[in-house]
Amino acid sequence: MAIEKNLTVSGKRKTAIAKATIKTGKGKITVNKIPYEHLDMFKRLTIKEPIELTKKTLGNFDFDIAVNIKGGGSEGQIQAGRLAIAKALVEFTKSKELKQAFISYDKNLLVADTRRKEPNKPGDSKARRKRQKSFR
After folding, report:
1. Which of 56, 81, 83, 126 is the most buried (most CB within 10 A)?
2. What's CA 86's distance to the chain center, in Å?
3. 74-93 helix and 96-105 helix, angle to the nearest 10 degrees
4. Alpha-carbon distance 109 to 81, whole Å?
5. Are 127 and 118 in contact (CB under 8 A)?
6. Could you give the strand order of the β-sheet that contains 34-35, starting from the edge strand earlier in sequence?
7. How far apart, in Å, are the Cα atoms of 25 and each of 5, 28, 70, 84?
């Protein structure tokens, strides 16, 4: 199905960066060297979304995926890992059908969310807030 032996793809969310390495195998998925089955339920279900869509679209799932995630908070890390897995699956299989399935399910599976925290303004303690007057 795929020409490459293994492929590394990255995904970002806020300050979290995930790198997913995919190769043909038996369907083993690890997140920071831990099998994804050992994650808590919400994180496991979020990571599982692109995998389940791939099984539904292509029929079988014979890929080993190792995801290494650094930086950010726990939610940003899981979203970055999900993005990296989905991008790796599309690039490794070169399937237009799988890409279309991901986009129709959730565009954020393949497109990074570029929103970031707005920087603080000089003289203010917050980014967007009017200063309160001390007189009336």
Report:
1. 81
2. 7
3. 150
4. 10
5. yes
6. 6-13, 16-24, 63-70, 29-31, 34-35
7. 10, 7, 25, 18
The average pLDDT across 17-41 equals 93
Q: Is 122 left (phi over 0), alpha (psi -120 to 50) or beta?
A: beta
| Residue 35 CA, distance from chain mean position | 16
Cite the DSSP H helix spans in the chain: 41-58, 74-93, 96-105
Residues 66-112: pLDDT tens digits? 999 999 999 999 999 999 999 999 999 999 999 999 999 999 999 99
Domains defined for the chain, CATH in brackets? 6-109 (3.30.230.10)
**120 conformational bin, left if phi > 0, alpha if psi -120 to 50, beta if neither:** beta
3 state DSSP class of 21 = strand
